[in-house]
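Workshop exercise sheet. Pairs work together: one partner reads the sequence aloud, the other fills in the structure field after running the prediction. Swap roles for the next sheet.
Pair: D.N. / O.F.
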Amino acid sequence: MKAYLGSKNIVKVNATKEILEPFGYEVIGVDVDSKVSAQPKSDLETINGAKNRALALPTDGIRIGLEAGIEMLDGDMYLTNFGVLIDLKGNVYKAGGTRIVLPKEIANLILVDKLELSDAMEKYFNTLDIKHKNGAIGHFTNDLVVRCDIFTHIVKLLYGQYLYHETNK
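Structure field:
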């Protein structure tokens, strides 16, 4: 069985493999265009990016799109994550993940300097390749929660919905 993932980002690929390989899936990461901003700036844009990634994948397996974004709520910028799974019959499953308030300094780099979250983090903390490592969530939770955890959780939510649908028709 094939499970296509709309990204070759190692964190997203490993999270998807962790959940789906025990169910017998071969996880195949594919570079696809999310058709949204490089830094999605709302829940709607973020979930649309995830859906666009899933829709762009081959149809001979389940298709998964994962997308990270930000959302402004009550003057605070939140880190957000969404996922979409499309099964072989075309059924669409959606899930959202963890939210955490980002520091004002990071929010300003995103809003004023128009940087992506990963670029803002790298600039502010003078580090490299944060989105392929523990991510902003790892940094701001002292690695109690890391980027892979968030995407693992979303894939669990997506695949769990799929399993529920398949066993409760």
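Discussion prompt: Residues 15 and 152 are 5 Å apart (CA to CA). What would you look at next?
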